[in-house]
Amino acid sequence: MATPLVARRLREGQLKQSPIREIMKLADRRNIIAMGLDPDDVISFAGGWVNHKAPEELRAEYSTISDDPVLFHELGAYSPTRGLPNLREALLSVDATLYGTRDLSDDNILVGGSSTQLTHTLFTTLLDPGDRVVLFDPSYANYGPQLNLGPEGTEIIWLPVFDAERWAFMRDRESIVSSFQALVSEYDPRLLLFSSPDNPTSRLIPDDVFDDILRIAEEADCFVIVDFAYRAQCFTEVVPEHFSASPSEHPNLIRLHSNSKWCRGLGRRLGWVEAAPHVIEALEIVQQSTALCPDSVHQYALAAYLTKALSDGSLQSYMNETNARYEKAARHTTECIDRYIGMPRLDPQGGLYTVMDVGRNGDEFVREVLASTGVIFVPGSGFGPSITNGVRISYGPLVNNLDRIEEGIRRVGDVVDKC
Ligand SMILES: Cc1ncc(COP(=O)(O)O)c(C=O)c1O
Description:
7-stranded mixed β-sheet; alpha/beta; binds pyridoxal-5'-phosphate; Aspartate Aminotransferase, domain 1; Aspartate Aminotransferase, domain 2
């Protein structure tokens, strides 16, 4: 009997597993046992997720829903495609109050299932076949594969932002801006996409670079999507100005948000986009086909929680308290790297990661370190060619267990010269 084949792009390998997923598979319990290691003794710095508890008040909103048979039933319905009006309003108020973002109204926002889903929805909405998209090298490892899944023939143009010699992110600001200007003139890209704080470097785009890049893109009719997945984890004393840059002033600016890293609960995810009204209208049409609407229960619970927590001040306290914990874990991780391993690494300005220079192919290093210590890092190659000799180290999942961070880094330090 003939077996139907999957699509050509998958048969021919244009779409494939990400290197991060491969390392996660390598770290699978059965694999660990097959390597002769004790899975309970493995220390993983691979996970790109947070590990603080959601606010109790958010959990209480879920209890209200499940205790109320009428509400429970009503929330079984589809929400509007653009999201529940109360949530849209609450998200805009949170942004205006906590970050000072100006002049965004209901026409500027659409809620979706997650920022991953919305990234795909944005590509369908903004790109024509064969368009060019600029990504920073390095960049979040999912952007490249997601673009490959976008309109046929989308071309990725890499903008190098990392100096591997000096192990520094955006060291030479002028040359980054002039390289972007040159890329724009040569390739006429439709879109630039990056995150700030960034995954994997946990560095922020400096405000002056942000302003220059946004202006150059605006003049060239190029959209700029800023992925704010880690905006709640920011360790600088002064909040960066670009956190409040508004699409009402810059119609080519699109802000992409996720609640996965700051207010997640019950494994339910949401994302939202703020952009010019014509972009939101187009996104709504695409979202009708990709998701129909986001999760009603989480939208309802989050809207109720945010509305109360913003007005009584508990949202700000929750965010300050969790941010302080990630900052502490970040400082602890880099101190341990300096003490036990002594390899160059980046100072996180936010986010969940640091990137360490291992001075050789990161993929091989990760495999050897796992086999000899039971410690899991993520190879840098999945994020872009500039950090092939690096590994990403995540302190997010271990935020409540600083001793475990120390133990893992110490183990690697013990073997590092022998690898
Ligand atoms: C930069 C960045 N954007 C988006 C996501 C995914 O967010 P979501 O859970 O909303 O899909 C991640 C996940 O790690 C990320 O690192």
